[in-house]
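I'd like us to work through together how a protein chain folds, taking it slowly. To get us started, please write out a protein record for me. Go ahead whenever you are ready, and we will take it from there:
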Amino acid sequence: MTTNEIQKASERVAKLKAQAEKLSSPLAEAQAELEAAQEAEAARRAERGKIYDSEFSRTWSDHAREAGSSGDGARERFYELLAEEPWFAAYVEYRGARHKRRHVMDEAQRAQRSLQEVVTVPEQRYYPVAILDDIENHAEKMAAEKAAEFAEELRKARDEFLESKE
C-alpha cells in the first residue's frame, strides 16, 4: 500500500468513526428509552396483576359456585337424552330385574324370620356392570379436557386484563 492509499484509508476510518459516534449517542438514548419503557410496562403489568389477583381472590367463591353449577343444565339434558336411548332403557330393565330379585329374596328372608324358621334364603349378590366404569372413565377424560379449556380461558382473561390500559 502506498502512502496515499494509507492516507485515504485513514481518512475514511476517521470519517466512519465520526459517523459512528454521531449515531451511537441516539442509539444509546433509544436503548435507554426502550429499557425504561419495558420496565414501566413490567411495573404496570405487576400492578394490574395485583389488582386482578386481589379481585379474583375476593370473588373466587362466586366464580367457583358459577363454575360448579354451570353443568346443571347439561346434566339434566344428559339424563333426558339417556332415558330416550333404547340401550339404556334395556339396561335399566335389566338392573330393575336384579332389584326385583333382591326384593323377593328380602321378603323370603323376612317371611322365614317371621315364621321363626332357619333363614335359608341366600343374601343377594351384586354384580356390577363394567360398561358403567368404561362410560365413567371416558366421561371423566372428556370432562378433564373441557376443564383444561376453561383453565386456558381463565389464564387468557387474566392476560387480557394485564394487557388492558384501563
About this structure: The first helix runs from residue 3 to 69. Helices lie at 3-69, 72-84, 86-114, 130-163. The chain is about 85% helix and 0% strand.
